[in-house]
Amino acid sequence: MCNSAALTASKTQQLVGGYDAIVLELATILQNLSAQQATACNSEATAVPERTSVPSGILVQGASGTGKTHLVQTVVEKSRVPFRYLDAPAIFQTNAGDSEQFLSTVFAPLRSRGPSVLILDNFDALCPRTLQPSELVRRVFSRLLALIDEQHTSASKLRVLVIGLTNIPTGLPLSITRSGRLEKVYTLQLTRAQQRLKVLCILTDHSTAKQAILLKIASLTHGFTPADLQNLAMNVTKSLITRVHTANQSTAERQMDYDHNISLADFEASLRVVKPSGLAEFNNKIPAVDFNDIYGLDTIIEQLKNALIRPFEHPKVYQQLGIQPPAGLLLHGPPGVGKTMMCSAIATASRLNCILIEGSQIRSKYVGESEKMIAQLFAQARQNAPCLLVIDQLDILAPRRGTSQTSENTSERIVTSFLTEMDGFNTDHNVTQRNVLLIATSNRPHAIDPALLRPGRFDEHLHIPLPSHQQRLSITQGLMKRMPLALDEQYVESLVARTANCSSADLVNLFQEAALISLRVDITHTKITQEHVEQALALQVNPIKLV
Q1: What confidence category does residue 45 fall into, taking pLDDT thresholds of 50, 70 and 90?
Q2: Which residue ranges traverse the bilayer (predicted)?
């Protein structure tokens, strides 16, 4: 029997990658269920495992695209156990009483066939998930529980194994997952590179992608579901077809390219387009910024690399030295000094999944919505770990408690919720190797609730001041490489000296305005001159404070 379960698992693993342990467990459960069926048909059959070897029910949960339906259906089909697949919302009927009757008629033929499996997709639709669910949902849910419980009162071992599938596990009533019902819970998530490698090997022809390339890509696809990996493989294939067909080659040469020429560069190019679907809910467009695009902040950049990036890249070295990475990092300074741009550069350098959200986006006028969004934000970061979670304008999201002027105490509730999530997030992971890097920015650090700034939360603070003379010179020289600025060295020194109160954003806006002025004068201009810069200084909507 064990060999049969292993064979079923092996056949399934050839079609479903990354969940070997779960597949083997399910195959064993279904094999034991088959033994009950054999006993029902043959009274002289050998003894079957105790009833406890088959759970009363199973709940398979995971985000959309994790392969719940594909995995369960494949294992059940390979095990040859009678089954029925049903999308749970299809149970609901128009007329009163018809929904409960329909559910009963689903169970009846399965019971008559002996031990069988009922797969209920979108299982959460049958469960009351609010304080005041509809009468229809309550009746259907009660009938479902009754049908499951009836099996325990029957002397016969003939039964229906209910397997519920859901991508919304939070909020399901505890009564459905207690002992005797859907007591066995599996969570599908590709947390390890080896899991993603197995999925990639199934999705790609072994002759077209070398194992070393797939292993590298598996290490770069944190938070990807099997569906995301499938999208990635399809994108790579389309790129390869386009490249091969644009080349002047014979049919044989094209086939050789298909078989051997998928490169790491093909996958890396597709990774810039295909992102984890789990980030879609908080998917702000993050600028493709490199540290080389940031001028004059070399010291700050080095501090950030030491605090955030290197502990992630070399965890064992930091563990051996007993160095703990910060629980959270706060970048603060005046507007326009490059705090948010620095966060984008960290995301690029670390190659982590990144969630960037502004504090104002989380605040809601509806009671409880802000706290719910904070919980979802941290849940998404954990689900897509390793992940960089960036909260812009933390002072707007979490101001000092006691300063709220509303009767609902919105700010106090938000801060409390944020503290709870941060503390839970920090205890979820080994402190010497965090899977979520938390960064916040603020123009007004004094306005942030002090509880967030203590050790164990945002315990490292980096101040980015207005640029110094040398930093403004570096910024100007960097911009001169990117823009056709025809400025002599003496004028540049003079301009840098006159802009002592300017931020890096002020300087960028100044030169962009100068470029527009040059085009207004003559659309064929290819250079930005000193005169254009001087006119831009005079036309600033928010005048730069010159010295």
Answers
A1: very low
A2: none
List alpha helices for 446-529, DSSP H.
469-482, 489-498, 504-521
SS3 for 361? helix
Q: Which of 56-70, 127-141, 225-239, 242-256 has the lowest mean pLDDT?
A: 242-256
d(CA 318, CA 161): 49
Tell me if 438 sits within 8 A of 305, measured CB to CB.
Answer: no
Domain 193-274 -> CATH class: mainly alpha
Asked if omega into 386 is within 30° of 0 (cis), the reply is yes
Check for a shared fold between 193-274 and 469-538.
yes
The Cα-based distances of 26 to 5, 43, 183, 184, 512 in angstroms read: 9, 26, 14, 10, 62
Return the half-sphere exposure (C-beta side, CA atoms, 13 A cut-off) of residue 282. Answer: 26
Report whether 190 contacts 224 (CB < 8 A): yes
Helix axes 504-521, 469-482, angle to 10 degrees: 40
* CATH number given to 2-187: 3.40.50.300
- b/e 437-449 (16+ beta carbons within 10 angstroms → b): bbbbbbbebeebb
Q: Whole-angstrom Cα distance, residue 389 to residue 350?
A: 12
**Number of C-beta neighbours around residue 303 at 10 A:** 14
DSSP string, 102-166: HHHHHHHHHHHTSSEEEEEETGGGGS--SSS--HHHHHHHHHHHHHHHHHHH-SS---EEEEEEE
State the pairing for strand pair 436-442/387-392.
parallel
- Encoded tokens for 2: 């064990």
The pLDDT-based confidence of 76 (bands split at 50, 70, 90) is very high
**Token pair recorded at residue 86:** 């049903």
Domain map (residue ranges) of the chain: 2-187, 193-274, 291-463, 469-538
Residue 344's nearest CA partner among 294, 299, 307, 383 is: 294
The average pLDDT across 480-490 equals 92
pTM as predicted: 0.73
As given in the structure block, the two tokens for residue 48 are: 């079957």
In this prediction, residue 208 has a pLDDT band, given cuts at 50, 70 and 90, of low
How far apart, in whole angstroms, are the C-alpha atoms of residue 518 and residue 91?
68
DSSP bridge partners of 163: 58, 119
E-strand ranges in 179-242 read 184-187
Q: Can you spell out the DSSP letters for 253-298? A: HHHHHHHH---HHHHHHHHTT---GGGGGG-PPPP---GGG--S-H
Fold of 469-538: Helicase, Ruva Protein; domain 3 (1.10.8)
CB within 8 A of 127, min separation 6: which ones? 137, 141, 172, 173, 176
